[in-house]
Design a protein that fits this description.
The protein contains 18 helices and 17 strands. By secondary structure, the protein is an alpha/beta fold. The protein folds into five domains: about 35 residues; about 55 residues, no CATH class; about 180 residues, Nucleotidyltransferase, domain 5, CATH 3.30.420; about 60 residues, no CATH class; about 80 residues, no CATH class. Strands 1, 2, 3, 5, 8 and 9 form a six-stranded mixed sheet that branches. Strands 11-14-15-16 form a four-stranded antiparallel sheet, with no helix packed on it. Strands 12-13-17 form a three-stranded mixed sheet, with no helix packed on it.
Length: about 500
């Protein structure tokens, strides 16, 4: 209606020619002439133009995938990049940006309204880092396992570090910080966390927190100040929250497709991927610099990285009559002399250490399976010296090295072979396991091994490896003695005289 009224004013009131009206309005002269001939002052209606997109043939497929993903957990939903690769394999020839525009439009229509607005944050170099966990899945040791991925991100340079663990526990948290600070080369002055149970024992009103004592010890060791977000306010550490999404799409997607021997191999690969990303990715605030280049500038503002924090969790355990302790549905052996006593168990991410009166008495590789028994046969040597008959069916001795098992099979065929085998095992605390294994292999090569043969070989090995120490004295020789070979002739003449 507005354009028609304007044309009528220009023609009937201002007496402008059709050519001038067409020039000022951008309409054709035929359109202007047709409108002026109409008696009723009603602006014509035109059908709304429907734009066509190269994505239209795949719109139904993309919508179906997006509706399916809406019922999945967020970490399992396909990204726009994954959807683009899927339809491209089916023949799509358009650009990735068109797929992103379709996904944004679909999700905006599904949400039914605009999203929440946030205040952008800015951090000085070396000021702060953010930490968070995410739950991921990968094939480790032949099984698909649930893993906890530790994300540590510097707020200024955007350098990040990833480490995978079997669980979210104190010792895993401490180890994740030690690895990240070692990779960064320094420690920021402030750490930003959510209210995770491994750091906060109780959440009070406002910013009041009862911080876990061991976590406080970690902060005191690295000299950074902990800061905790408000409840259900993950946007207060939005950079690491975004990092969880980005690393899941860019790195973990490839890790989930591969097969890993153990967590050590997986973490070594993650470390390599993080460093490669530092060299390839530009910093969002300084696009001319990569993350690795800006990290070198941030290192100058960070605190020096001290020795790694001894991040163990300690708890008392009672030793059973079979010299075993129980921990997380598994059993671990200790020296038999500590049966029926209470030891201190120090829990590390990959190993367990047992301490008695301040001294370590046993160490085991930590198992995250269930109902496993991990033996060290040397813990029972003192016991079989008194009870050699236990060698025949003793469960710990089934895990001895192969040379000892071969010697055991040979000796137990003889009368008193269990006593002989106990004597051989008794040499391990005195001479060491490696020396005894060498002696046993040499004895087996002879064809008639015995405890006397093994002891003889050990004695000869010790004699060959022995070193003579010089005698220390305050005396000094002023005149070096000269060899006199003629004295032997004098002795012979004296002997003849006696005869």
């Amino acid at each position: 209606m507005g354009m028609l009224a304007k044309i009528r004013r220009m023609h009937f009131r201002d007496h402008l020619p059709l050519r001038e009206i067409a020039r000022q309005t951008g309409l054709s002269r035929n359109t202007v002439r047709e409108w002026l001939r109409k008696k009723d002052v009603v602006e014509p209606q035109y059908k709304k133009r429907e734009p066509r997109s190269v994505v239209d043939p795949w719109a139904e497929q993309l919508g179906q995938w997006l509706r399916t993903d809406a019922h999945r957990p967020k970490r399992d939903r396909r990204t726009a990049r994954a959807l683009f690769e899927a339809i491209r394999a089916q023949g799509y020839r358009g650009s990735y940006n068109r797929v992103c525009a379709f996904v944004r439009s679909w999700r905006a229509d599904a949400a039914g309204g605009p999203g929440t607005a946030y205040v952008p944050l800015s951090f000085a170099l070396g000021e702060a880092f953010q930490f968070d966990w995410s739950t991921e899945y990968a094939f480790v040791g032949g099984l698909r396992r649930k893993l906890e991925l530790a994300h540590t991100k510097l707020c200024a340079s955007r350098a990040f570090w990833l480490t995978a663990y079997p669980a979210q526990s104190h010792e895993m948290l401490f180890d994740a910080h030690a690895r990240a600070f070692a990779a960064f080369g320094g420690v920021p002055r402030r750490g930003i966390y959510d209210n995770m149970k491994t750091a906060v024992d109780r959440v009070g009103r406002g910013k009041e927190r009862d911080i876990n004592p061991r976590f406080f010890a970690l902060c005191g060791h690295y000299l950074f100040e902990p800061e905790f977000c408000n409840r259900a306010a993950g946007w207060e550490k939005g950079r690491v929250e975004k990092d969880v999404q980005d690393r899941r799409r860019q790195i973990w997607q490839h890790a989930a497709e591969r097969r890993w021997k153990d967590l050590e191999e997986l973490n070594a690969w993650l470390a390599e991927q993080c460093r490669q990303a530092w060299a390839d990715m530009a910093n969002p605030e300084w696009p001319a610099l990569t993350i690795a280049e800006l990290l070198q500038d941030e290192l100058m503002q960070m605190l020096p990285n001290p020795q790694p924090f001894d991040g163990y969790v300690e708890k008392p355990v009672r030793v059973t009559s079979t010299a075993l302790i129980h921990f997380q549905r598994n059993r671990y052996s200790v020296p038999a002399q500590y049966a029926h006593t209470v030891l201190s168990l120090r829990i590390y991410p990959t190993q367990l250490r047992l301490v008695a009166e301040g001294e370590e008495v046993a160490r085991h590789r930590r198992s995250f399976e269930r109902d496993q028994t991990l033996y060290d046969f040397t813990h029972y040597i003192g016991l079989v010296e008194r009870k050699p008959g236990a060698l025949r069916n003793g469960a710990p001795f089934a895990q001895m090295p192969e040379p000892l098992l071969r010697l055991q099979r040979h000796l137990l065929k003889q009368t008193g072979g269990d006593r002989t085998m106990a004597d051989v095992l008794g040499a391990i605390p005195r001479h060491g396991l490696e020396a005894v294994l060498v002696a046993v292999e040499l004895a087996l090569e002879s064809g008639r091994p015995s405890s006397e043969h093994v002891m003889n070989v050990l004695a000869r090995l010790n004699a060959c490896n022995g070193s003579t120490e010089a005698v220390r004295t305050t005396l000094s020789v002023t005149e070096e003695p000269r060899p006199d070979v003629h004295r032997y002739d004098r002795l012979r003449s004296e002997a003849d005289h006696v005869d």
